[in-house]
User: What shape does this take?
Amino acid sequence: MGEYVIEMLNITKDFPGIRANDDITLRLRRGEIHALLGENGAGKSTLMSVLFGLYQPEGGVIKKDGDVVHIKDPNDANALHIGMVHQHFKLVEIFTVLENIILGVEPNKMGFLQKKEAHRRVVELSERYGLKIDPDALIEDISVGMQQRVEILKMLYRDNEILIFDEPTAVLTPQEIDELMGIMRSFAAEGKSILFITHKLNEIMAVADRCTVLRKGKCVGTVDVKDTDKVKLSRMMVGRDVDFIVEKDDAKPGKTVLEIKNLTVPSKAHKNNAVKNVSFNVRAGEIVCLAGIEGNGQTEFVYALTGLEKPSAGRITLKGEPIVQIGHKRGLQSSASLDKTKPILMPIRHRSKLGMSHIPEDRQKYGLVLDYSLEENLVLQRYWEPEFQNKGFIRKDQVREYADRLIRQYDIRSGQGPVTPARSMSGGNQQKAIVAREIDKNPELLVAVQPTRGLDVGAIEYIHHQLIAARDNGKAVLLVSLELDEVINVSDRILVMYEGEIVGAFDPKDITVQELGLYMAGAKRQSNESEAYSA
Amino acid sequence: MKLKQLFPRSRFQGAGFQSFLASAVSIGFGLVFGMILLVCFNISYSGQGFISLISAGFSSSDKFAKVLYQAAPLIMTGLSVGFAFQTGLFNIGATGQYTVGSAFALIGAIELQLPWYVCLLLAMVGGAIWGVFPGLFKALFNVHEVITSIMFNWIGVFSVNFVIVNLSQMLAKDWGLAQMDRTAPLDAANPSAILPKLGLDKLLGSNYMNIGIFIAILFAILMYIILSKTTFGYELKACGFNRNASEYAGVNSKRSIVFSMVIAGALSGLGGGLYYLAGTGQYSLLKALASMGFNGIPVALLASSNPLGTIFSALFISYIQVGGDSMQPEFVREIIDIIISVIIYLSAFSLLMRSVIAKWISPQKAVAEVEQALPDETAAENSTESEATTL
Assistant: This one.
């Protein structure tokens, strides 16, 4: 047996009008973790789809243990012990974990399922690798992290030796990412070989042995991770230097734009409140970051602020105008007279007119109408303005002109320009379209929720610059983020949210990532809250 | 060229043309299969039967008038279903809305002795009322519109029967005619409620001819304008494609859903009005659902829910039905119905056919639908271009 378990030699894959993989060679050693790095659209997924048998390459050969193999479909890949965890999981929602794992290789006696035997094996595998799952839970009821563990167990159950992970960390929380890294290391130690698609440099530095970099369909090179660093890798990936530290001047905060008092939002998942009595202000010309681990009430907070959900109590004013004012029997110590006034719950359209922009957390669920074209999406918040309609008729030429300008100005890339269906655009460019739309609305308050989730370093850098430019234009920016680097780098003020409460307020210059992590995890909290808010 | 203008390139380049081609191919398959069935049922008359099936509609001006006469209500129910589709709703209640619309029109015509245009308005009101309930249930309680509208189909039929029997002069027997289970013929009860014929009946030599088909075409154009040119249509479609995103954009999605169903109901209701105010048909007290409403579903599917395409798909289905009628007596009624159903059924495969044709015409799009890796690649392509321009 040779050094390489898989060799993909001179692979070329064409799609109509575009060469997705151009003469790419990738060699995978036995027992190594091999990262595949590249920007959105560099051809990583295509290359792995070729290996997994989803595409047939126009040129090049694939060798397994030195012998040429032809992989015509995923069944062939499976027979060669190649397994893949897709970015979007391939699970049957209404089946149990166990049923999903055995799907396609069901142990049976004369057509009758032998679940007991399968159950025993799955439990044994999950214990051996520390992949915590509940074999009898339904997929639709379990967390994304557990769904991924189910996908990994599917590969193990099929005795796969070559494991492909397609951007596995995009959907995970920081803790789950650490866990996954540990699991990947234990696989490698056992002699399994791992191909790990990602555009997160930290993860490559942490876990990979070697790294192959793709750019625009071409192979830039393969490097040993121990001989390189993040700066070199990012230069290989993007083709230029990338700023990790965002250059920005000190904030010059002006008037208070957003004022939140005693906001309480009920939870849909459990009986407790998701947001508990939260108060803070955001001023013009500053970026306030609401940091926290996912599921600590940030989502509900943003929904209540932007009008997608109804809070149970509290008061929010935007530019001095109340947009939410709901009293309850106790708790509103600050303004006892609130109980008597009529509750206010301003509709979303009015909040938007008043100057609120919202880059939503889930871009496909809220941010875009995927079946609409790019231009139709770019006017989603403004189609009713006189600029874009006349007596109820859409002014298509104006819309086109506006879309063309945004596409140019914000460098939104798509196949067919303004008429491209949003569904067919890459995630990064979908996000750019939303950012362009929301910033170009010229808001007084920009609410940006995880605006860089799932994007490559180039796009992240771009969006950070846009946020800071908005701040420098005197806008108030409320950034909600899970990424510690982003929190520290971009914001002027950090508020940490833990279990629905603000547990600390910091100047990013005075706090380290480690300390911030302790607050986010609930291990520490500032005692004097009133001092915290005035920071 | 003109054909392409009729089927606008809304989303993709030439998508409208692809839809048209898909429908045409599906119809072709349907006809071939119909021919096979004819051979199976009665080989000696099969050739003759097939010829009359596909040519009867043009064989005489009277038959042609009948094609137009039946097409008018079909266009309306097709528009109703298609409009709801485009706004994310499955209006399987077209038949109930059609029945209630018919009843409102006939009550206006016979019981209240109103002129035809008021009766048509009443038909729309009736259909709209029958559309508003499923809309409200969907918007407020998230009850699926298919369930409510199926229930309302039956409630509609029996309520209409109940009301008509209990009014003083609705039935033919109230006007001294022998028929027990039918409403009074309009030429006896209220000739002013019959749709104007504008001399077209004399031109084509047929009593079936009136302005109904033009009203239907007018509404098809109107729906096309609303859906593709107005902010109102933009909101309704956004809400249909993605309710969350439309709410995020400040659209009142509950209102949109109710509006969609009301409009869909009014369209179906008007279809009922157009059919019965032609003066040639009498409403009979049935214990079954009117097929005109359900036939709106294949009409809409065949037209890919495009309002302008609906005109042609309704004409086609009406044409086939008239052709089927002329196959008697060599073929019995039931067999003709089977053949027509098979043709319509296969015609509705146009959606499937469209993806095949899309793959055939431009493989790129088909691949994009199958694998999402490709959009990334097009992004890469563009980045290469943009880099070239900056250099």
Observations:
- The CA atoms of residues 319 and 349 of chain A lie 16 Å apart.
- Chain A touches chain B through 58 residues (CB under 8 Å).
- The longest strand of chain A covers residues 4-15.
- The radius of gyration of chain A is 25 Å.
